[in-house]
Write a structure and sequence with these properties.
By secondary structure, this protein is α+β, with helices and mostly antiparallel strands. 58% of the residues lie in helices and 16% in strands.
C-alpha cells in the first residue's frame, strides 16, 4: 500500500498554497466522479501538475514490445504537447519493467548528470525535459499499468521527498479508481451480457411456442439451440421402444453430413438413463473419449463425428419423456459453459411444453375433421332416407292400380266367357286373342306385384339400416368429442 498524504500535509510543507488547495479539492472530487478510464487519468495528472507546479505531467501506458503510449497529459502552454503519442524506447530495458512493478521510483534533478544512455537523454531533450520524476502505477496483481511522470522543462529541479510521497499517493489513487472503474465496468458488462442472453433465450422460446405443428416445434428447437450455444450440430433424438431412436429434427453446419431420419439401435443406452433423464438429468461432455462411456457408445458417436456433446431431456407436459435434445461439437472439443447448459436446458423444457400443445392442437384438428366427415356421411344417409320416403307413396299408389287392373282382368274374363257361349265361330276366334292378352296382363300384373313386394321389403330394410347407421355415426361423434 502506498503512503498516505493529505492535502493539508502538503499545504503545511509549503508545496501548495490556499488557492491551489481549493483547486485540488475540486480535482479530487472530479477524480472520484470520473466516468471513464481517460477521465480518471486526466484528473490524476491535473492534480499532480497543479500541486507540484511542474511544466508537464503525463501518464505512460505500457504497450507490447516496449512501446508506451501517452494517455493523459497536463502541460504548460508553450511546451510540446505529447498526448496520444506512441513511443518506442529501445533504451527502456525489460528489466526496468520488473523494477518499476516492484515500486521503483526515479527522481532526476538534471538529465545530463543522471548517467542515462545518450539515446534516452536525446529522447527527453526533444520534449524540452531538464528534470523528471517517475513513479510506477502498479495494479493490484503487481503488474505494471504504466508510469506517472513529472517533467520540469524551464529549469532543473531537485525533487523533494514530499513531492515523491504526494505523487505516490496520486498513483495509488489512480490505480484504486481504475480498479473500481474496471470492476463496475465488468459488472455492467456481465449485466448487459446477461440481458442480451436473456433476450436471446426469450426470443428463442417465443419462436418455439409459436410453432403451429409438432414438426415445426422440433425444427425451431434445434435451430434456436444451435444459434444460442454456437455448436456444430443440434438434433432431437426421438426415443422409441426396444432401445430404438430416430433423429427427427436437425440443425447442422454445411460441412457435416446430415443424419436426419437416421434410425439408431443403441444397445448401450441403458434403460436406467430414461428415468434419470425424465427426472431432468443434463449431461455435458467436453471430451467423449475421457467421459468414461462404454466403447460401443463412443463408437456410435465417432461414426457421426462427435467429439463433445450436451444432452437435455424433452419431456411432455405430463412429465413423460419424449426424447433428447442433443448438441454436437464435431471439429474440436468444447467445454460447455454454465450459461450455455442453462439456456440449452430451458430450450429443451419449452420444446416439451410446446410439443404437448402442438400435439393437442393436431389431435383437435383430426377430431374436427372426423366430425366434419361424419356429419357429411350423416347428411348423405339422411338424404337417402328421404329419397326412400319419397318413393314410398308412388309405390303405394302403384299397388292400388295393380288391384284395379286385377279386378278389371276378372271382369274381362267373365265378359269373354259370356261372349263365347253365344258367339259365332269368327267371334270366338276374336275373343281367343282377347283371352291371350288378358292372361298376359294377369301374368305381368302378378310379376309387378311381386316386384313391388320385394322393393317394399328392401325399402323397409334400407330404412332400418340407415337409421342404425345414423345412430352409429352419432355414437362415433360422442367418442371423438370425449377424446
Amino acid at each position: 500500500m502506498q503512503p498516505s498524504l493529505s492535502l493539508t500535509q502538503l499545504s503545511s510543507n509549503g508545496s501548495v498554497d490556499g488557492t491551489t488547495l481549493l483547486d485540488l479539492s475540486e480535482l479530487l472530487s472530479n477524480l472520484r466522479e470520473a466516468k471513464t478510464e481517460a477521465d480518471i487519468l486526466q484528473a490524476g495528472v491535473k492534480i499532480a501538475y497543479r500541486a507540484l507546479k511542474c511544466d508537464r505531467v503525463v501518464v505512460y501506458s505500457m504497450q507490447p514490445e516496449s512501446y508506451c503510449k501517452i494517455v493523459a497529459e497536463a502541460v504548460t502552454p508553450g511546451y510540446t504537447q505529447t498526448l496520444g503519442r506512441t513511443l518506442k524506447d529501445p533504451c527502456f530495458e525489460a528489466s526496468y519493467i520488473e523494477k518499476y512493478s516492484k515500486g521503483r521510483v526515479r527522481a532526476i534533478t538534471d538529465i545530463h548528470k543522471s548517467g542515462m544512455n545518450p539515446c534516452h537523454i536525446e529522447s527527453l531533450e526533444k520534449i524540452e525535459i531538464k528534470s523528471n520524476l517517475v513513479v510506477p502505477i502498479v495494479r493490484q496483481d503487481d503488474s505494471l499499468y504504466g508510469l506517472l511522470v513529472m517533467h520540469q522543462c524551464s529549469r532543473t529541479r531537485e525533487w523533494q521527498q514530499l513531492d515523491v510521497e504526494f505523487v505516490l499517493q496520486i498513483s495509488s489513487w489512480l490505480i484504486t479508481e481504475l480498479a473500481r472503474k474496471h470492476y463496475y465496468a465488468s459488472l455492467e458488462s456481465q449485466v448487459e451480457n446477461a440481458r442480451q442472453a436473456r433476450q436471446l433465450i426469450t426470443t428463442a422460446t417465443q419462436k418455439i411456442n409459436q410453432a403451429l405443428t409438432s414438426q415445426e416445434v422440433l425444427e425451431q428447437s434445434v435451430s434456436q439451440a444451435k444459434e444460442i450455444i454456437n455448436c456444430d450440430r443440434v438434433v432431437v433424438y426421438g426415443l422409441q421402444a426396444g432401445n430404438m431412436g430416430e433423429i427427427v429434427a436437425e440443425a447442422t453446419i454445411p460441412a457435416l453430413a446430415s443424419i436426419l431420419g437416421n434410425v439408431i439401435k443403441d444397445p448401450c443406452f441403458e434403460y436406467r438413463y430414461l428415468e434419470q433423464y425424465q427426472s431432468g438429468r443434463i449431461r455435458a461432455i467436453p471430451n467423449i473419449f475421457e467421459a468414461g462411456m462404454s466403447n460401443c457408445y463412443v463408437d456410435n458417436l465417432v461414426k457421426i463425428g462427435v467429439r463433445s456433446n450436451l444432452v437435455a431431456p424433452i419431456n411432455w407436459d405430463n412429465g413423460k419423456i419424449y426424447g433428447l435434445l442433443v448438441a454436437h461439437q464435431c471439429f474440436d472439443f468444447k467445454d460447455w459453459q454454465p450459461d450455455e447448459i442453462e439456456n440449452f436446458k430451458e430450450i429443451a423444457f419449452h420444446t416439451g411444453l410446446s410439443l404437448s400443445k402442438a400435439i393437442i392442437k393436431e389431435q383437435s384438428h383430426t377430431i374436427e375433421a372426423g366430425l366434419h366427415q361424419l356429419n357429411h356421411v350423416k347428411d348423405t344417409v339422411n338424404l337417402a332416407k328421404y329419397k326412400i320416403e319419397q318413393i314410398k307413396q308412388p309405390m303405394q299408389d302403384t299397388g292400388k292400380v295393380l288391384v284395379e287392373v286385377n279386378n278389371l282382368n276378372k271382369l274381362l274374363e267373365r265378359e269373354i266367357d259370356q261372349i263365347n257361349q253365344n258367339a259365332s265361330a269368327q267371334t270366338k276366334k276374336d275373343t281367343k286373342l282377347m283371352q291371350i292378352i288378358a292372361r298376359k296382363l294377369i301374368s305381368i300384373t302378378s310379376r309387378l306385384r311381386g316386384s313391388l313386394g320385394i322393393v317394399n321389403t328392401s325399402g323397409n330394410e334400407a330404412r332400418l339400416f340407415l337409421e342404425e347407421a345414423i345412430e352409429h355415426i352419432d355414437g362415433n361423434k360422442s367418442d371423438l368429442v370425449d377424446l
